[in-house]
Amino acid sequence: MLERSDLADNALQCLHDEDYDRPYNLQNLNAETLIFTRGREGRSLDGEWNFCVDLLDTGLRQKWFSMLPEAAEKRIEPWDYDPYEGETVPVPSCWQMLKEKWYFFEGSAWYTKSVSVDELLPGRRRFLRVGAAQYDCKIFINGTFIGNHYGGSTPFCVEVSDALTPGQNWIMLCVNNTRTLDRVPMRNTDWFNYGGVYREVALYETGATVIRDVFARLD
Prior knowledge:
The protein is built from two helices and twelve strands, in the order H-E-E-H-E-E-E-E-E-E-E-E-E-E. By secondary structure, it is mainly beta. The strands form three sheets. The chain has a six-stranded antiparallel sheet with strand order 3-2-4-10-7-8, with no helix packed on it. Strands 1-12-5-9 form a four-stranded antiparallel sheet, with no helix packed on it. The chain has a two-stranded antiparallel sheet with strand order 6-11.
């Protein structure tokens, strides 16, 4: 598909570009973007998500996140992956626990879910919260890259007030659990390397003003 794809700016160059991950590795979703959720009622996005393992990390090269829904009979070329149809997996879960063929898989996998929302009222904000994803999780909404988070055991949030529009939206998560030389665990270690979105995913609404820091002291 890549050689004939209109999504990639230069398909043949992208095929051999080993720096393809750089634009999608901002690591901008961190402790500073977290919101406090206790006492707030969120909308759960848990359940079945479309899923595909990405053996060669092709998805970022081919820009799968830019693909639009299209009926199979209208396609003139084979697709490596359709984010809107096909296999599904439950969220939360680890892909190793779902199928034997994924038991030792390390790499990227793509999750896609259709989400319909109402128009956001004035003075309100909307946040997407992922309880945990192992290890690098990149978020795309309606084909636009929003940001990514490093860390397999920590939650993260991203504001989606403008990214989600009234009606149907598509949320895509690209999760990569590949071990690297510059973080733990090391490549050769006694560690089972789980992968996937393995804690809850939800949408939250807040007021326009958010308290970033608060403390109490004796006077």
